[in-house]
Amino acid sequence: MSSERQMVPRIGVDQWVATAEERRLRTLGVRLDEAVARVPFALRLLGIALPVALYPVLVDSEYLLQVGIDTLVFVLLGLGLNVAVGWVGLLDLGYVAFFGLGAYLYAAVASEYAGRHWDALVAVPAVVAAVAVIGFLLGLPSRRLAGDYLAIVTLFFLQIFLVVLINSGFTRGPNGISNVLPLEVLGRQAVSLEAYFYITLAACVVVATALYLVNHSRTGRAWRALREDELAAELMTMPTNRLKLLGFAFGAGVAGLAGALYAPQQGAVFPANFDLVLLITVYAMVVLGGAGNLFGVAVGAVIVTGSLEALRSPADASWLFYGALTVTLLAVLRPWWKAPALLAATVVFGLAVHEAVEAARPSLVAGTPVGQAWIDGLVDGWVLLPENIVTGDGLPSGALGRLAYLALVASVLALTLVRSSRWRLVGLVPVLYLAASVWESLLLPQPAVARYILIGAMLVALMAFRPQGLFGRPRVEIV
Amino acid sequence: MERPGANGGVGERRPLLEVRSLSLSFGGLACLSDLDLEVYEGEIVSVIGPNGAGKTSLFNVISGVYRPDAGDILFRGESIVGLDPHEVARRGICRTFQTLRLFLNMSVKENVMAAAYGHTKAGVLRSVLRTPGMRREEREIERLAEERLGFFGQRLIGYRMRQPAYSLSYANRRRLEIARATAAKPTLLLLDEPAAGMNPVETQEMTELIGRLRGEGGYTILVIEHDMHVVEGISDRVVALDHGVKIAEGSFEEVATHPAVVEAYLGTTGVERT
Question: What pTM, to 2 d.p., does this model score?
Answer without folding.
Answer: 0.84
